Amino acid sequence: MTQPRHLHPDLLFPAAEPARSNARALYPLVKDLPIVSPHGHTDPAWFAQNGRFASPTALFLTPDHYVLRMLKSRGISYDALGIPRKDGQPVEADGRKAWQLFADNYHLFAGTPSKTWIDHSLHAVFGITEELSSATAGSIYDQIDRQLGTPALLPRTILDRFNVEVIATTEFALDPLTQHQAMEADGYIGRVRTTYRPDDVTDPSRAAIAENLQKFGELTGEDTATWAGLINAHRNRREYFCRFGAVATDHGVPTAMTADLPLVEKQALLDKILAGRLDAGDAELFRAQMMTEMALLSVEDGMVMQLHAGSRRNTDPLLMRERGTDLGADIPGPTDYVGGLRALLSRCGNEPNLRLIMFVLDETTYARELAPMAGYWPSLLIGPPWWFHDSPQGIRRYLDQVVESAGFYNLAGFNDDTRALLSVPARHDVWRREVCHFLGTWIAENRISKSSAEDIAIHLSYQAAKDAYKIA
Amino acid sequence: MTQPRHLHPDLLFPAAEPARSNARALYPLVKDLPIVSPHGHTDPAWFAQNGRFASPTALFLTPDHYVLRMLKSRGISYDALGIPRKDGQPVEADGRKAWQLFADNYHLFAGTPSKTWIDHSLHAVFGITEELSSATAGSIYDQIDRQLGTPALLPRTILDRFNVEVIATTEFALDPLTQHQAMEADGYIGRVRTTYRPDDVTDPSRAAIAENLQKFGELTGEDTATWAGLINAHRNRREYFCRFGAVATDHGVPTAMTADLPLVEKQALLDKILAGRLDAGDAELFRAQMMTEMALLSVEDGMVMQLHAGSRRNTDPLLMRERGTDLGADIPGPTDYVGGLRALLSRCGNEPNLRLIMFVLDETTYARELAPMAGYWPSLLIGPPWWFHDSPQGIRRYLDQVVESAGFYNLAGFNDDTRALLSVPARHDVWRREVCHFLGTWIAENRISKSSAEDIAIHLSYQAAKDAYKIA
Amino acid sequence: MTQPRHLHPDLLFPAAEPARSNARALYPLVKDLPIVSPHGHTDPAWFAQNGRFASPTALFLTPDHYVLRMLKSRGISYDALGIPRKDGQPVEADGRKAWQLFADNYHLFAGTPSKTWIDHSLHAVFGITEELSSATAGSIYDQIDRQLGTPALLPRTILDRFNVEVIATTEFALDPLTQHQAMEADGYIGRVRTTYRPDDVTDPSRAAIAENLQKFGELTGEDTATWAGLINAHRNRREYFCRFGAVATDHGVPTAMTADLPLVEKQALLDKILAGRLDAGDAELFRAQMMTEMALLSVEDGMVMQLHAGSRRNTDPLLMRERGTDLGADIPGPTDYVGGLRALLSRCGNEPNLRLIMFVLDETTYARELAPMAGYWPSLLIGPPWWFHDSPQGIRRYLDQVVESAGFYNLAGFNDDTRALLSVPARHDVWRREVCHFLGTWIAENRISKSSAEDIAIHLSYQAAKDAYKIA
């Protein structure tokens, strides 16, 4: 029988000595450090309401686009996995059946980070060390389901068990922050923080943009039909988000393009949006200008700006029509950070109060653009490997390519960017193990002293994220 | 004296323990599996006529553009290597002299896959373990030449010796398949298969395109001056190729661009081609539309579609004028697979009967585009590393970058893509050794169980190619 | 206390056995080979005047943009580091204070090649093995300063101590070569050579271009208002540079674009430049045409042509206004070598007398474009990893990606490209160690024989550079 590889003590450490022992020696220094998770997509309702997770399927399968896409790629339909359709046609309603289908195909995940995260969760959270398979599907389902009813599996308890010091959620500008209000009312303050993600009012490719801008004005008491009013509305709303712990803004954009236009041109763009007369070039330019405005507001209020650029969204129109967004059809593309950020950086790249964290899906920019840029501009940090690259090999390519030109201290540490709560500790553990892998190898190559490596391992596992996001 | 390194039992296995022993333990499981070679460019006449190979020079040197280009790059003229000129001016006619020149410069191949393949062939096929050099050139030439006259070196015997289960050749749409007819008549059926490569009637940048389209009509009895007739001609011709074992189509295109135009625009493009009034943009658009048509025909007839995109052909106009194509001056360029395939995938990417295997020369797309795409679309598989990247380091970069997002089961296994028959087992052996290298390291890093690694090694060495190409 | 890692005997060798021992065995063969440094930016005045270096700060800090940029990236101002301002406003004048600030922040350099080079210089040149830090800043400053007054630290002695056989400086076309004249007068001939870098008269984006072209005419006695006269002026000036040992030309260009226009269009471009009516497209085209002209002159006079393409210069306009160029704000971008060089190579790529060495900052071109090109064209060699990529990991990525398609003999060996004299041996040592690392691993993987590896290690450390630059 296959020995379960879940949580092997040497998981991901270098294959050979002496690097392996070096990694082993570093790991205890970082293993149990608190988790700082300043960027992610968990649901604030979990923490506000602290209720029971519905089922194993709802916990592991249906919300995880990494898992869904892989099953679809081998011909398994989203209907059979229970993913709702817009047209209301029935899909598989029996979570246990969908789970079985998932388990029947679990071998497809060999070599993927999804398997690492799921195996980690099964073992660390539920004490399950059997391999998920057709044969074990039912009994594993039952074990999980049974435990979901216990206090140990309530969301706030999970944060305790995982030693999560801070976790950020992400909300749109128009979000009322109801869940965060509830946590505040409850005295549950500081641990779960919101993040200001104003794509709903900065991205004119959204159908509802004009309507959203009007609501934005109502919400903030500003006249968002004028440029000055629009900026004031953001100023006002950012302040509101900060009340609920926000330390950062976040921007999901197809490219890294920024602009710095004269007021008359900015107003003209806004006029076009409100009149619904915008073309694709105008939309790009408006988004580009808004990035510079967000940077200028960060200079004012000190919020950390995050740029997540380079995903081509919704590349499958059939999926989009049938079921909507975030189900696996977003595919990265090349991204030009140097040309893209030129306008923003020329305007305020040397401002001491600006902090901009760059995330990319285009690894070719690591050594060629991001590391040289972060190694020059005081305002720039490189975000951790993102999305498809948040994986053992992805982390290796990242460290290989950014450290030499950016150093260790221009990195923003790690963040897990997850929608799947249970994967939080698994992801941080992979990062920490890979940091130990990297530094353990460098010690063995006599490139870094043990004491430096220890400092850096601790820094990258914990303090770097706090520093980067200005979390006291 | 230098010990010959040919066929060292640990060739390409990890340098250090315990990964080396893990690779050693996996290799016997895959070493002698039958060879499935569903894509390549060997000459069907070899297998149809089963005659003697002419000479060592004709076997190893003159048909191998990898070897020729390297010699040219260090100042050795194609005249001296015996490569024919279009103007009929004399070139070196003495194969033995060209061979000596090759051997004199064999040190140039240190570190190249060409040397690995040639050394492997010399050793495994001819039992030669001396290093090729100025001193050994003559005696090695004689040893090869002597054996070429024996039954053991006849092409069909070579397929037996190499345990080749299936090998595909590649023919243009207008090819009469004479050699395949001869094999059929001979009862030599199923082992050597053709592949439908209709570039001669889909690529309008060819001078003879209008003439070719007319011939295509005559050959199939369709009116290729109408769009419906053109598609029918393909339908008809694909069926003809299938009679000779074809399981796949293949398309060599400069970019991955596809289109899905209304009929009136398609007909207008065709009219322009036939009238010889096409510009470069029209040519690109016609090729792009034909890719979608081929996909739709694959939905109908189940043939597997292969896209080989991204080579900039004939970059040396002097070479082209003097001697023609396929002599080393084709150089890769960046390729956009996400944008390129958008039209085709939007039209039929979710069709269960579509299978499209993507090959690239632009490694930056492995992790950024290909793996995310193959990990989503049920119709897509990633082809093995191609051309310059079909090498030990190339295979390492490939596995490093595709596995985590695509898994192992969205890969098409290996194919050798060779024109050099004797390199077939050498190339498959390099792939199998590198798969063992990769998995052996992952076992040592506790990322995969031994039994999973065994399953995957066997799958990637044999079954994956059969599954990908629907070979029963 | 931290053990100093400076000059560890196994620095950068593979972490694990047996590759480590293989590297160790290769290294003594290359360690003490003479240094050939055919491309760099040291100041010829040092060697002509052979005077004392001013201070530790002037030696290690203020001229090194790698160091300055990293300090700036963490919020340290160029004022505090003593970098002069154009407006004459005072900056830190006390070199000792700036040195202390540098030492206080020396931990930022962990993992960077800058630290490797500086530690190497401190140890190998000054015998200092303490780690630079806040605590040791003063005493290290004193130790360096004291030694700067001794004969052992005079520039020519340093060349002796480092066993520098040849070192090239780089001068613009209008440079009178005063320092090289002084060395000639002094009988100090052949060791320090100039390089012809005519960007001052080939790059129309320079404000003074028209004036420069006029000076160029006066200097050479040619009518640079005509195309023939302009080319003659270059012919004349190249000959003048050769008198002072130049073996090569060098060209810093934003892209690799070349052109091959008819005379009438060339003259029209020149007319526009002289009239000050050039737009950005014209400027690109003029530069592009000049690259082909330089290649044609290389065919005539045999000078080796170097192309350094792909840096986006002066991306921080504030820095540019305040302090000028070469202070860390030059950031690489993607570069298209295949399309770019097409015109030049079509014109003269097969000329036996042409030698063109390609340097890139875009590593994605290594395997995709440069290695295939250098493995075909007899005129092309691949330059060593450049700028941000002249680092241990950068060298690994380079060898990983170029060797298999280009072989070892289409590489130009190493050059250090430095402005910092003391880093010359450190950089060559890193290259030699990484070559031993690479070959030591390949020996352990049974991919190359020990004797081949020995030949190649010696070749890449010494002879390759002499061959590439035609240094007898």
Largest interface: B-C, 48 and 51 residues
Query: Strand order of the main beta sheet of chain A, please?
Result: 6-7-10-11
- Level-1 CATH class name of the largest domain in chain A: Alpha Beta
Look at the helices and sheets of chain A and give the structural class: alpha/beta
Q: What is the CATH topology assignment of the largest domain in chain A?
A: TIM Barrel
Helix content of chain A: 40-55%
Number of spatially distinct domains of chain A: 2
Rg of chain A (C-alpha, Å): 23 Å
| Mean pLDDT metric of chain A | 96
Q: Supply the number of helical segments of chain A.
A: 20
Quaternary: homotrimer
Question: Beta-strand level of the residues of chain A, as a percent range?
Answer: 5-15%
Main sheet properties of chain A: 4 strands, parallel
The tally of beta strands of chain A, per DSSP, is 11
EC number (chains A, B, C): 5.3.1.12
Pathway (chains A, B, C): Carbohydrate metabolism; pentose and glucuronate interconversion
Family (chains A, B, C): Belongs to the metallo-dependent hydrolases superfamily. Uronate isomerase family.
Enzyme class (chains A, B, C): isomerase
